[in-house]
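ugh ok so i messed up the first submission bc i forgot one of the chains. this is the corrected input, ALL of the components this time, i swear. 630 residues overall. if the numbers dont match what u have on ur side tell me asap before i send this to the collaborators (the ones from the other lab, u know who)
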Amino acid sequence: MKQKKLVNYSKFGYLFAIPFFLTFLVFTLYPVAYTLVIGFTNHEGAIPPKLKFLKDPLANFKYLFKRRSSGAKSYFLEALITTCRIWIVNFLPQLGLALLLSAWFTDNRVKVKGQGFYKVVFYLPNIITAATVAILYNTLFSYPKGPVNDLLMHLHIIKEPYYFLLNKRPTRMIVEFIQCWQWYGSTMITLIAAVIGINPEIFEAAEIDGASRWKKFWYITLPSVRPIMLFTLVTSLIGGLSMFDIPQLLASGGPDNATTTIAIYIYNTAFKKPYKYNRSAAASVILFLIVIVCSATLFFIMRDKDAAKMAKLKKQAMKKAKLEQKGA
Amino acid sequence: MATNDEVMRSDKNKKDSQVALKSRKRDSIVFLTIIYIVCTFLALLSLWPFICMLINSTRSTEAIQSNSISLIPGKNLKKNLDILKKLKTFDVKTGLKNSLIISISVTVLSIYFSSLTAYSIHAYDWKLKKVFFGLIIGIMTLPGTVTLIGFYRTCYQLHLTDNKLMLILPAMAAPMTVFFMKQYLEGALSMEIVESARIDGAGEFRTFNTIVLPIMKPAMATQAIFTFVGSWNNYFLPLILFNKQKNYTMPIMVALLNGDIYRREYGCIYLGLSITALPLIVAYLLLSKYIVSGIALGSVKG
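and heres the new structure output, hopefully the right one now
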């Protein structure tokens, strides 16, 4: 039967996969390859000259890491550090909050009422256009009169209005806050699904043994949801590496480059004078390499575990059989 | 004597267990109170910016300037709308039209071809299948930033910037959606149905369209919502590809609201933001059940 299926129908497998594959070739593979090529060439300026490889093919890449004449770090390196910093500061509280809420919402001793409402509300910021969110926050933090300044003055936390978006650290903190605020709901829902998937008998057994709430969380919940946490971590990291809308529209990557991420760097280098497409392409290639490492991790996490286990068992059995043969 | 002792002991036990029960109950109440306080605070944090936006969109700029956190709506909605209509950069009609055309086309193409691709992997045995599926997982998380320069320069050289198709056609290869569809097919489609259709003499393509697609409806609905929202909210690519104002999508229009010239018209800015956010909020509240369950489905893949 299987043999017949192979002979008769396999061509339809190829046929139905062709549209995807062609689109992938034209819109992903070719642009990636072309970006890579541009990174080694003289492709720059409003009307770029004929494509030619540079004498020193790595010049664009070297430039990205070269120190500025003032001795400070290069702009690219600074953008890379800023991006990682914003991601870490937004992700840790996001994961912590999501873990806490998912443990609360799945507690089998106390039932939290209104869970559905809370889930819907916590996820709401994620669905709103990032551009809208960024402009909204820009307006909320406006100076000297603005909702946040007014609120803080009503609560007597500050005496005079504060110009948040003119100072480096506060602006970066606002970007980090928005990222966390937009994403913790999504992470929470994912983790809740993972906790629900844990066999309830394990929790029951722990309760009979008198385990406290904290112990149950630490020794059962946390280890069980680790794969999902890793999945969230990697997807969030890749998303964070290409962060653009919020920092760009909140403060145009400023003040003083404090929120210039890699994506903003790539955009500014290529689409503002003097249009250094080649340098921007080189930066994209480095971003690409970082993403590949992250994706490889993801691939490793999501590979078919049962199949991997079976293959391992089979190998062991083969080894054993061989050893036995030798022994005999 | 003995009986008395026993009674006393059992009494003591009862008391003990009652005390334990009580303390546990008290413990639960304290625990629940903390939960509700934290959750209510977080809910306010999620909602406050949007409430502030909606209320201020009905107030005059002067009122906002004197007190920007009022909870009472003003009567200036119409006036704000009139000012907004005069702005040449913020053209809601064009923005909505472009966003709808692009998002709907992207959703339809992405859902149909992702289903087809997933079916080709699930239903047939072909030599390069494993390589192909590996490729799909490999490019699943590739951000657009990486392909950007090459993509833009190609479009530019072929005079294809300002062409909506450049945003729509790439949707035919959506690896995340293919992956999700394949997972769904594994649980929902038994090959016996396909076999019986073959015996009835239906062609392979027709079987897919008339038998397999209807089975995939629930997965298609979930993915359609996320694809649509993703495309609707996309700011980066249209920003780079579109130069002509007649092609601007909603996120680009919103970004233009922040221009310095209209900086002082706060009521107008809040109204513009509300106009772009409100349809999403309403649609989200209507579909929230599917969306919340969809997030869980999309990510929990052992």
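quick check: Chain B has two domains: 2-76, 91-256. that seems consistent at least. DSSP finds 14 helices and no strands in chain B.
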